[in-house]
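Lab notebook, bench 4. The sequencing result for the construct came back, and we need a structural model before the next group meeting so we can plan mutations. Quick request posted to the team channel:

Model the 3D structure of this chain.
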Amino acid sequence: MTTLLFVFITALVLSLVLTPLVTKFSLRYDIVHVPNERCTHTTPMPRIGGVAIYLAFVFSLLLCVLFRTDVSDLLLHENRMITILVAGTLVFSVGLWDDLRSLPASVKLLCQMAAGLITWLGGIQINVLSISLTSGLQLDWLSLPITLFWIVLVVNAINLIDGLDGLAAGVVVFTSLIMLLLCVVSQKYLISLGFAAIAGATLGFLRYNFNPASIFMGDSGSYFLGYTVATFSILGSLKGQTTLAMLIPFIALGVPLFDALLAPVRRFFRGQKLFSPDQRHMHHRLIKKGLTHRNAVLFLYSITVLLGSVAFTLIYARDELAFFILLVPTAVCFFTFRKLGYLDYLASDKVYGWLCDLKEASGISHDRRTFLDIQLQINKSQSLDEMWDLAGGLFERLNFDTATLLLSDGLHENKKKLKYKWHTQRSSSPQNNFCLKLDLPLVERKGKLPKKSQNCITSNNAVFLGTLILKKNIEHNPINYFTLRRVEQLRNVIIKRLGTGF
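Done. Here's the predicted structure in token form:
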């Protein structure tokens, strides 16, 4: 315990001393974050606070080696610590370069995956995935992709929540202290040294990063902290109690991991790029709900402490008790996320609509296959009358009330304008107040029509074949998910059939 306390205090003091020096250096050489529309600050801020965190972490462990104790000697005989230092320096350097010059997202992701690969090759691997607190699933060849996914996920999770003063740093402090206690209880003292160094270095930086902040950790800090927390969490789950499986650090890191996992899902449903920045993260939503900057951060701190307490309690719980322990924070988180509007994207009507779209696009729905069959029959029709009779069946399926086809002069052999009408057998007729009317021009590009169609009215790039007019009473027969899409499909098949001639 003395060695752990020494590492924690050393990292804390080094961070307290180095952070002001990094701040002065950053201001002197204009290495600052310029405020934008997504920033809560109005003045330029130093943005390389990660340098202080990195140096405090590394030097606290190096100084620990100088004091020969049973715990510090473990550092000299553990090759995986060298792996963490090498790969951690890589992600730190990538983040620092991004702070200084800016890098494309693809380059940063590739470097993060490279660091994950180095970590896996160095023997830090997720080989067992917990199914419960007393059993697990051997991953075998899946160990590499899951290890890479975990490291990249945590790295970007810490980076994403670094949007408010002190939020990312505070979450890392609490998570590291929780994991430190878990490792001490499990007698994993080497891993405890790592978490002690992370907690001390980050706590010292938090002194200057808490609202109102005087410096940002930048990508260098968030990447490095995310990587070290991810890798030490993996080590903390190796060759020990099954209760220290990946379920525990996943729960302890619940706040940033949930935000990171939901962000691409949210952007997917909103039609945005999956990795584009926005202001819809958890901390942004709390501020929009009326919380102050500081209160939003303190609220997320409390959630992190709650989840960490649950993770710690699970060590001593059996499966039956663990279920009830997990039930309480799950319910709290559910109602919190619902209040923040996160579950709006997963509402039943939206999910149902998305599934219906998926069935329609894939062609597995019965209605879509029937519609397609009639389209194929229209394409093979031998006359205008046969084509129109088949089209009437589709109008009926789409619940239209009337349909009119006006063909252009010169398209038919008698060179007279032809008019076809269809109406439903239903007694009701569309009323003006509730009538949807679609005037659909039938236009084909030049060069695709037979010679007899050259008498049709033409424009620069197309030949006008006629007009399809559809009417529908939307009071009794509202538009469903696919009405307009199938109307367009029908329009195209009619154009194609008219264009090839009879």
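Residues 238-245, 448-453 have pLDDT under 50 and may be disordered.
Will bring this to the meeting.
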